[in-house]
């Protein structure tokens, strides 16, 4: 942290302290005892949470279709004394579970959607599950379960009178392209929350100081005229020509956008038969950049390419915004506090059998992988470059937010791969889930017991947001509940 930023945050934090006198922090010995108890409790319940995670892994439900997964997490929370509000923000599989009263209010984020096209058995070989298309290639079966476990442990401590406040577990569907959290933010469900804690499965253990990048996604639909492709092609107007012309123009545009921009697409419908001029075709686009304003600019140019493609092919075009997320606003104050807790928890150790499985998985990657022992390490605190996008970004522009990565996959394993799916379905993944649950719980304990930490984090948050007024990139559209259809 540079000196200018340090002094600015110090002044802002001092102002917060003066205007809102804080209760004294809980004695360090008591906090240590709370954390020791939490770790012991979570270890004692590990088998129960492992079963929950594996059930969700077996459900493998895609975004906004996570009926069984959401219901199981809700039941787990209700059985442990939470009041659960289901179907929030016009999303049947979203929920908010609450326990306690008063300040501070700490939110825990839970995800549970799977990815299409990644069906995989819990095997060291690539082998699909018959009759199942999707798979947990991002480990959200572990994500949601660890977050629920952390929420339940915090509830126990509040109930026992260890500290006061409110814990909220946010059931967040459709992170994978559906922007579920954006709708929760837009519905005002994070109003009054003082800080949010989250995590993500990974192939290493680290405090999350790499920003997710902003993203807008849309489906572009071209409409033409069908005809016999051989007998009367002149009477047809190919919707697929419109899609291909758009793709060609966007691909030429890549040379003329900021180098950090990422644009990718799939043709979701290109017609039904080669001898029929297709009267409908659809292409699904993602546009990303580390800055939301650059995303807006690049996406507007993609729209212009689509309009030009329609004009040039004699077709018509319409498009539907599917998702839109902000970049992740990092909070160094909270991230450094989380780092301390992560180092206390430590990484993951494997049995000899798991090491053997892990080496088989690494051999399938097709590139050199780090030593398996890397999973036992906690990476040093560092600010790094991000690559993916997440709707956690929108939460981070609403409340101070902090997260971690935990080694749920064998070192070297990329996300969104069959190897990630198989790790997420074994104890290899569940061990990392426990690391995450412990670290989130300990970090939340700090937020409940140290008002100064929360005030400093809030000061940094306000400094970084500045004069920006949050506005969702997906506009006022309703949740895209059928975007995976």
Automatic annotation (TrEMBL):
Gene Ontology biological process terms, A to Z: folic acid catabolic process
InterPro entries: Amidohydrolase (IPR017439), Aminobenzoyl-glu_utiliz_pB (IPR017145), Bact_exopeptidase_dim_dom (IPR036264), Peptidase_M20 (IPR002933), Peptidase_M20/M20A_hydrolases (IPR052030), Peptidase_M20_dimer (IPR011650)
Domain Peptidase M20 dimerisation: 217-308
Top-level taxonomic group: Bacteria
Leader sequence segment: 1-24
Tagged with keyword Nucleotide-binding: no
Keywords linked to the UniProt accession: Hydrolase, Signal
GO terms, molecular function: dipeptidase activity; para-aminobenzoyl-glutamate hydrolase activity
Gene Ontology cellular-component annotations: cytoplasm
Keyword Calcium among record annotations: no
Name of protein: Amidohydrolase
Species whose genome carries this gene: Hymenobacter roseosalivarius DSM 11622
């Amino acid at each position: 942290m540079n000196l200018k930023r340090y002094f600015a945050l110090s002044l802002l934090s001092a102002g917060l302290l003066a205007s809102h006198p804080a209760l004294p922090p809980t004695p360090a010995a008591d906090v240590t005892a709370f954390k020791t108890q939490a770790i012991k409790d979570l270890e004692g319940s590990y088998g129960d949470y492992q079963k929950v995670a594996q059930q969700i892994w077996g459900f493998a439900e895609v975004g906004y279709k996570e009926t069984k997964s959401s219901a199981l997490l809700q039941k787990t929370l209700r059985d442990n004394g939470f009041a659960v509000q289901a179907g929030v923000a016009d999303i049947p599989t979203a929920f908010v579970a609450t326990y306690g009263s008063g300040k501070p209010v700490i939110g825990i984020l839970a995800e549970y959607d799977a990815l299409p096209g990644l069906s995989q058995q819990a095997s060291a070989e690539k082998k699909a599950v018959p009759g199942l298309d999707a798979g947990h290639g991002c480990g959200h079966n572990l994500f949601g379960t660890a977050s629920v476990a952390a929420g339940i442990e915090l509830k126990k401590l509040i109930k026992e009178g260890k500290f006061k406040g409110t814990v909220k577990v946010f059931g967040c569907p459709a992170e994978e392209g559906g922007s579920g959290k954006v709708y929760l933010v837009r519905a005002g469900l994070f109003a009054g929350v003082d800080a949010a804690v989250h995590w993500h499965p990974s192939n290493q253990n680290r405090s999350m100081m790499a920003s997710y990048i902003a993203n807008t996604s849309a489906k572009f639909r071209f409409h033409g005229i069908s005809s016999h492709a051989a007998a009367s092609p002149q009477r047809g107007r190919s919707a697929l020509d419109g899609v291909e012309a758009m793709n060609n123009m966007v691909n030429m545009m890549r040379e003329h956008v900021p180098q950090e921009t990422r644009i990718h697409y799939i043709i979701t419908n290109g017609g039904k038969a080669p001898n029929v001029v297709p009267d409908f075709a659809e292409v699904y686009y993602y546009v990303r950049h580390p800055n939301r304003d650059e995303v807006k600019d690049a996406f507007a140019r993609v729209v212009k390419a689509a309009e030009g493609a329609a004009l040039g092919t004699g077709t018509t075009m319409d498009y539907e915004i599917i998702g839109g997320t902000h970049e992740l606003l990092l909070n160094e104050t909270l991230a450094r506090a989380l780092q301390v807790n992560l180092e206390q928890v430590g990484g993951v150790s494997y049995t000899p059998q798991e090491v053997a499985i892990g080496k088989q998985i690494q051999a399938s990657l097709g590139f050199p992988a780090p030593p398996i022992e890397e999973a036992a390490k906690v990476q040093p605190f560092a600010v790094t470059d991000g690559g993916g996008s997440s709707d956690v970004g929108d939460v981070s522009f609403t409340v101070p937010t902090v997260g971690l990565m935990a080694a749920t996959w064998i070192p070297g394993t990329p996300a969104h791969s069959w190897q990630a799916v198989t790790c997420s379905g074994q104890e290899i993944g569940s061990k990392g889930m426990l690391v995450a649950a412990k670290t989130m719980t300990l970090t939340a304990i700090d937020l409940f017991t140290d008002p100064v930490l929360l005030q400093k984090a809030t000061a940094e948050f306000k400094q970084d947001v500045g004069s920006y007024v949050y506005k969702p990139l997906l506009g006022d559209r309703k949740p895209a509940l059928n975007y995976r259809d």
